[in-house]
Amino acid sequence: MNADAVLNAYIDLNLLLVVGITVWMGLRWGLSKSKLGFEFIRQKTLLTWMIAGLVAAPFVADGLNGTLITQAPNLSDMLVAQYLSGNVSMSATEFEGLLGARESFERDVLLGQSTLAQALWGLLAVGAVLSVLITLRAALKLRAILKASYVLRRIGRVQILVSETTRIAFATRGLRNRYVVLPSGMLHSGTDLRMVVAHELQHFRHGDVETEFLFEALRPILFWNPAFFIWRQEIRAMREYACDQALVRRHGFDARAYCECLIRACESAIQARRGAHLSTPTVGLVDLRNARRGATLKRRIVAATATREVEDARFGWLMLLAALLSLSFATALMIQRPADWSHDRLMLSTIVNLERMAARNAAPVQSDLPAGFVFSSY
Predict the structure, then answer these.
(1) What is the pLDDT of residues 164-197, one digit of tens each?
(2) CB of 61 closer than 8 Å to CB of 336
(3) C-alpha torsion 369→371→377→378, nearest 10
(4) Could you tell me the sign of the dihedral formed by the alpha carbons of 311, 315, 318, 322, in that order?
(5) Which pLDDT score, from 0 to 100, does residue 66 have?
(6) Which of 9, 178, 261, 357 could form a disulfide with 58 if both were Cys (CB 3.0 to 4.6 A apart)?
């Protein structure tokens, strides 16, 4: 892919994140009004695949458009058709300028000659560097915690560590090994210890740590887009609901004791303050990065204690997932720039040329002769 294609895919990705979060919020609201509102395990799976589809859709659409997919529907061509049908009250010159605004912006950014383009590149570079430095600082802090901890138990490639510096149990991973870090104060309660370890191991089964790594990898290039942070907040909340439900629905698991464990862990973290904030990329038992932690804890308890009112309609969820992925791909095709000149765009260009010729003919003719010079008929 050349620089123009990369920039085009990057703009499409940001637009898709905005459109996608709008669709997700509407879908989640609709599910909350139905019996599926508390099926957070399926909702979390749906959300994860939807995010993956949104990230991949611009690059897939750019690779297939014009090769395997020809004459794909395009938003620009649809607008041109509406204009030629008389449904847009605007001059052809202004309308063409509006349609070409994105292409002009991309060309200006790639050339980097204007002050605006240079300022934009500078802001993107500074933001990306700061995001990388923040992640690097968090990774070094996390590495220090892991090195200062001692091993309590090993389960395959999973190491259960005990730390004197952290007040929140969390899970993270390296290239090979996975780690569950427990506060030393939790060793006094065998019940809480077993439940917290089960909680963090469940995060590994759901792939939540890898998802957190993905968001950290995307932050340097998407740090300016509010939709990115809304997506991250949604996935963080949904993964806790899903993890809590998966544990409570195990046969013989004590839901009451688990909810009491969550309350004690949240109280301990709030009172301790120091060592209570997680360093990314980690997945903790409770997350104080959310300002509305009290409301989040309440929703987690409600989700954990909710009874399953419907059967596990796996086929229905798969159909919904297929519809969301298809919508993401179709939207990525729609917002792409048109590859070729269509018949309607040629007609629009002709109208623009006619408007320019009419404006030129209507303009008064300026003479270069000196003032007062008069032609004589003799």
Answers:
(1) 888 888 999 988 899 999 988 888 877 888 899 9
(2) yes
(3) -100
(4) negative
(5) 58
(6) 9
The residue type of 23 is V
Q: Which amino acid is at 95?
A: F
Six token digits for residue 365: 């003719």
pLDDT of residue 291: 45
Q: Which DSSP state fits 69?
A: B
Neighbouring CB atoms inside 10 A of 228's CB total: 20
Helices (H), 163-311: 190-206, 208-222, 226-248, 255-272, 293-305
The Cα–Cα gap between 256 and 265 comes to: 14
Alpha carbons 261 and 254: distance in angstroms, whole number: 11
Number of neighbouring beta carbons within 10 Å of residue 60: 15
Beta bridge partners of 159: 154, 179
Residues of the chain with pLDDT under 50: 291, 375-378
Give the torsion sign (CA, 50, 56, 58, 63): negative
Q: Which residue has the tokens 């804890």?
A: 297
| pLDDT on residue 340 | 63
User: What pLDDT is stored for residue 170 in this prediction?
Assistant: 92
Cα distance between residue 82 and residue 77, in whole Å: 9
85: which DSSP letter?
A: T
